[in-house]
Amino acid sequence: MSPHTRAVENWTLQPLTDFVREASARLVLVLTPSGQVLAQSGFSRAVDVMSAAALASAIVAATSELARQLRQPPFAALSHQGPHTGFFLATFVADRGTLAVLAVYDLDVSSLGLVQLFYEQLAADLKAASPKGAVPKQVLAADFERELTDSLNTLFGR
Amino acid sequence: MADDIRALSAQLAQDPQSLVFLRLGEALRRKGQLEAALRVAMNGLERHPHLADAHDLYARILTDKHNYERAFDEWDMAVRIAPHHTGALKGLAFLYFKVGDIEQAEAHLAAAKRVAPDDPSIDQAIAMMRKGVGPPSPTPSPAPEPATTAASSTAAVSSSGFDEARVFAGLEGANEGLLLVDGAGRVLGGALRDASGADVTDSVAAYLAGVSQEAARTAKLLGLGAWNGLSAEGQHGNVHLAHPTPEALLLVVRERGMPLGRLAILAQRATIMAQRWLERQ
Amino acid sequence: MSKALDMITRVRGVRGAMLVSAEDGLVVAEQLMEGIKGGAVAALAASLAGRLRRAMDAAGTGTSVFWHLQAEQGALLVVPGGEAAGSLLVVSVTEPDVNIGLVRLELLRVAETAV
Fold this sequence. Notes:
Mean pLDDT of chain C: 91
Largest sheet of chain C: 5 strands, antiparallel
Helix content of chain C: 25-40%
Distance between the termini of chain C: 8 Å
Helix content of chain A: 40-55%
CATH topology of chain C: Beta-Lactamase
Strand content of chain A: 25-35%
Largest sheet of chain A: 6 strands, antiparallel
Oligomer: heterotrimer
Strand content of chain C: 25-35%
CATH superfamily of chain A: Dynein light chain 2a, cytoplasmic
């Protein structure tokens, strides 16, 4: 297991570790569309996880709404590539509910093709490992602060 | 001798298809005019590609030029065409001895003796080899290697196994175009130089582990089974990557002119040497 | 584009031919037999091409003009299209006993004409 890969929900750990190794991704988040992080790899600061999760969640919400207005099914994945770095964001449905994966990769060690290829495997592995019959837990506003702190503590091994 | 060469040249000029090129090439070789001998042998080979004697002549000249790897190919070809060609069998024995493969050297001399039991030079070669001196080169080179070199090499083999510098001994370009590395990219033997002569051994070794991992993954995920070689033609040179053992990688780099098929054969030979060396470690 | 790939796939033993974006590892055009995953071929061929390029640069042999991965049950043959071709790779997946020389020629021809 990579020392930089940690999970709040343990069933996500192995699939994520495999994905990071195979796709040579630099940063990865597995999260719910509401921004709750299940696992992370490569992040060194809690504040970065928080902002990346919030932004990814916002993008998922915005593109889902765009698709809805266009009367299209939700977008499966989107990617953006700069001169040195690319990011990939995709959602899939597992027993745990809809999950999103955000992957950031460096173009000198990986590519969109590789990330897409191994994302398919990640999604399949997460679907297979997802707890069966689990009802997505509603995070109430009152509990949000505590849940977030607990998650971040777990994600950074505190 | 000069008169002989002149007369043979005139004969060949008169009848370019004749086999007189064999005598002319040998006369030039003995006189140390290796470039001229090489041209004569190559022209002869173009006209008589299936003549074992022509390959034998070419191999002897190449041996004089210390191009052992190509000489091996030529003698190998001669034996394929004429399995009882004693000259080629003796030549192969000499080259096997040079790389420390005494067993193969003896086997080839024994095969030569079965074909020509009365040839005293074969007995002499066998006797010399058993003494650890090594059979005489089938080509009395203009600048022959002292017998002590072969003897000391043999001693090194028997006392401490192959030393690192001898992993690819006997192969053409052993010190500049062959590289053996472990799975972590650490150099085990050989060396690489780029066109300007700069030593690029370490930097290439560092990249090879990544190439190998990717080759293995690609072959596996595409359902092609285990990979056994990667050849590439570059603008300035060709390369072949093989893995003599699951943990080791072997890279052969040659000039652009060497076809990939030939490069693969050379790599195969180097792979066998590397395997033997690794087994002895 | 498809006609160009035909030139490669008509060689006996070729199971598929593709044009691949070298930078992204994505499929640009493909003509594949059933069972061959174009996305995987594209991603992996581009990744291997990148690693091989770096090793060859270090060795001083220059950019590769053709490469060939031999495996027990098949082979991957690739001709990089070069800068002018917008960094495309012409890729073919073959049986192990294919005529490598012939496939190489067809790949080079496609790289010159179609790319």
